[in-house]
Structures are given as C-alpha cells and as structure tokens.
Design brief:
The protein is mainly alpha-helical. The chain contains 25 helices and four strands. It folds into three domains: about 150 residues, no CATH class; about 110 residues; about 100 residues, no CATH class. A two-stranded antiparallel ribbon has the order 1-2. Strands 3-4 form a two-stranded antiparallel sheet. The longest helix is centred in the N-terminal third of the chain and has 30 residues.
C-alpha cells in the first residue's frame, strides 16, 4: 500500500511532482489538502481566463458579421466573409486558450485538490457551448459560477450555476415562456429542461422524491429567466407564469409582478433537502475514492452536509478523515485530463511552459490527445457530464490513445527525457509495483521507459 502522502497526491491531487534538491517537502495528508483549498487562490491571476465583458464583446460581433458575410457573398464582395472567418478563428483561439490556462493551473498547483474540485463541480453542472457565440462563455461560467464557491456553500454554487447565462442557454431556458404570462399569450411555450436537470442531476438526484408535477411546477416558476447578448442577463416578469407554484409541497411565487427572489428561495430549499446532501456525498465519494464508495463514508459526508447547512468544506473533511478514503488504492481510473496533467507533472513540465505554447502546440499537444482519449475539453456528452466508472475510460479505443501518447507524447515535453528510473519515482514514488519497477529497470531507451510507466495500470489508476 502506498504512503498517505502518495495517495493524497495521486487520488486527491493532480499528481506527484519531481522532487527537488533540498529538504524533503512536508508529507501530504487530509490537513494539507484542506489547507490548500482554504488558502489563497493564486492560480487565476497567474493563468487568467477571458472575462465576461470580453466574452460578451466577442459574441456580440458574431451575428452582424455573419449577416454581413451572407450579404457580401450575394453581392460578390469577399471581404465580409473573410472578416467573419477571422472572427470565428478568434473565438476558437479564445476557447483553446481557456483550456490551456485550465491545464496550466492543474499542472502548477502545489497539490491540485482545488483543481480537482473545480473539475468535479464543473462536471456536476455540466454545460457545453452550442454555437460560436457561447464558446468563450464556458470559461466565464467556470470562473464565475464554480470557482468562487469551491470552499463555500452548495446553495450559493447552485444559484450561481443554475442561473448563469451559460446554463440558461445550454438548457434552453432562454426560450421558456409561461403559458399564461403576458408574453405567453402571444406565443411561445414552456421548456422543462432546466427544471428537470435541477432536480435530477443538480440536487435530489435520479430516483429522488419528486414527480413530473414537481418538474412542471418548477419549470413554471423559472419562467422569466432570460439572457441575450444584447440585453444581458435579466428576469423578465412579462414571461413569468402568474400565480404561485408548488414544488415538493412548498408554494413559491404569486407576487405581482413576479420576482426572481422566489427562484432563489426554491433553489435554497432544494440545495438543503436531505436527498441533495446524500446525492452530493455519494457523487463526491465515487469521484475521488471508488466507483462503489464506502457506505459509512457517504453517510458521514451527508451528515456533515446537513449539519453545516450546505457548507462544502465539512463534507470534504468528512471524506478525507474517513479511513475508506485512503483504502483500495487503484480502485479509480484516471480520466484523460487527469492522465495528461499527471504525466506533465511527472515529466517536470511547469504551468508556465503549458501557458507558453503557441496555438498549434495547444491543439497538437493538449487538445487533440484529449479528444483521441475520449474526453474533449469542456465538451461533455450531455447534462449528466462525464461517466465515472473505470470501464468507461479503460476501454480499447481510449487505452490505445493513452499508449500512443505515452510512447510519443513525452518527447514533445522533455528533451532529453529523464532516466526511466527517475521518472518512475517522479510519477509514482512508492505506488510503483514490483513488476513495473523491474520492467522499467530493463528499458533499453528513455522513450521506452517513459512509455512503460505512463501506459502502465499503476499510473492509469488512482
């Protein structure tokens, strides 16, 4: 069994890093993980994302540029089309730059527990840009709705995420209109997507104690939430369904005109529902420890959630302080993003090196490998996010892509490649098994040794 310090870095962090000369670093444990999370968050300043104002300014140009390109094509003038294509290229660059900065943060994080939680909660509130305009907003969503609340209260994160322009657009809330509202009498209809995912994915969970009537009532309550790049985020009372709605037996709304405060109230109540605490506890435990997590640990986490009024740090602490969190090492598979980040850390790559990649390098050395491994950056398959089970990641196609990268990718990052025995210690330390240690000691080249280490079951599980 590896040491607690090794398990902390691999299971709960973004991977080990090569040891430097000088005094040995302090061993990692539950307290060190929580201290990193509760300490200052310096990585956003070092590796910044696009701001909302910048994202909106870019997006506002898309539709006029597209219309101008269409008109120019009809008139035989190629200039507007060239400008439109340049704008789309800039949007792609901004999206790729966001991925680059997120990976740089994970590579440079002292431990990486905060970055792992950022990935987890971003996936819990999974979104995906459906058009060019919304591409940069994905970064804004991560920075505004998720990161500020990682060590805060889940009710506050829920409100920030569920009501964010990215979520409203992704789940079609922007077209939802109350049937009996002023706007509804002129046309349009109710959309239940956001309400359904709030109950099924974001709070109570699949199988929770809600019915279709609750979904519809919540959807009616949410009408009025809207976002356009011209008007920005707004609560449009003219679209809101009049009267009160009943969700899980509680009445909300009824004010004239309708008020967004009633939506905040239902989200607070859903966030603090006992089933929400159990759903979140099990999902966190499954993500970090085992596809079938220890029931006692899950109950301890759920109890901490209830006692703390939705505060998240006590839930993390309950998980990290439970013996099951440190048992069954290797039960989880590293997802492709985790695999890539851990490999770069083991190779001695810095966040500055990642952030300094030219656009072509970002695609070839970061984004293309993730796509081939089955996890394109910021593009989950649906609102339920990425799968957790090891079998979904360690499959023939995904494994072949990992092996391919393990054999060839390190040469793009480390010249010369480190001695395989040194790389083995940097990547796995005392988590390296005897068979892998024996094989690496007999590797004929540094490239072969790197491939053996990074493609091994030892490295691909946590």
């Amino acid at each position: 069994m590896p040491s607690v310090s090794t398990i902390a870095a691999i299971r709960f962090g973004t991977g080990l890093v090569p040891r430097k000369a000088g005094p040995a670093p302090a061993p990692l444990d539950a307290a060190a993980l929580l201290a990193e999370l509760n300490g200052p968050d310096t990585l956003p300043a070092r590796f910044p994302m696009i701001t909302r104002a910048e994202a909106e300014a870019l997006a506002q140009q898309v539709r006029p540029a597209r219309r101008a390109a269409e008109e120019g094509t009809r008139a035989g003038d190629p200039a507007p089309d060239i400008a439109y294509r340049a704008l789309r290229q800039e949007l792609r660059f901004v999206g790729n730059r966001g991925a680059q900065m997120a990976i740089a943060r994970a590579v440079d994080a002292p431990i990486g527990f905060r970055e792992r939680l950022q990935q987890f909660w971003g996936d819990h509130f999974a979104t995906r840009a459906r058009n060019a305009e919304m591409g940069p907003m994905a970064q804004v969503f991560a920075e505004e709705a998720i990161r500020p609340h990682l060590a805060g209260r889940f009710p506050d994160m829920l409100k920030a995420a569920a009501l964010h322009p990215m979520m409203l657009t992704y789940l079609d809330q922007t077209v939802s209109v109350g049937p009996n509202s002023k706007a509804g009498r002129k046309g349009g209809g109710l959309n239940e997507n956001l309400a359904r995912e709030m109950l099924e994915l974001h709070t109570l969970g699949v199988g929770g104690s809600y019915a279709q009537a609750d979904v519809r009532q919540l959807a009616l309550l949410l009408t009025g939430l809207s976002f356009t790049y011209r008007a920005g985020w707004q609560f449009d009372a003219a679209k809101a369904e009049p009267g009160a709605e009943t969700v899980l037996g509680e009445a909300y709304g009824g004010a004239v005109p309708a008020e967004v405060s009633e939506i905040h109230a239902v989200l607070e109540d859903l966030a603090l529902h006992p089933e929400t605490g159990r759903h979140l506890a099990r999902k966190l435990a499954a993500h970090f420890t085992s596809d079938d997590p220890d029931a006692g640990m899950v109950e301890a986490m759920a109890a901490a959630y209830a006692a703390g009024g939705g505060a998240l740090v006590p839930v993390y602490a309950a998980m990290l302080e439970h013996p099951a969190a440190w048992a069954s090492f290797g039960a989880k598979a590293r997802q492709p993003l985790d695999f890539l980040v851990a490999a770069l850390r083991a190779l001695g790559v810095t966040g500055e090196r990642v952030a300094g990649l030219a656009p072509g390098g970002v695609n070839n050395q970061l984004l293309a490998p993730l796509r081939l491994m089955g996890q394109p950056f910021a593009a989950p398959p649906g609102p339920d996010g990425w799968p957790e089970e090891a079998a979904d990641w360690i499959n023939p196609q995904g494994l072949a892509a990992r092996i391919e990268w393990a054999m060839k990718g390190p040469r793009s990052w480390a010249k010369p490649l480190p001695d395989p025995r040194r790389l083995l210690r940097a990547a796995l330390d005392d988590a390296a098994g005897e068979r892998l240690t024996w094989a690496v000691s007999r590797a004929e080249t540094a490239s072969e040794g790197a491939g053996l280490i990074l493609a091994s079951p030892d490295f691909n599980r946590r």
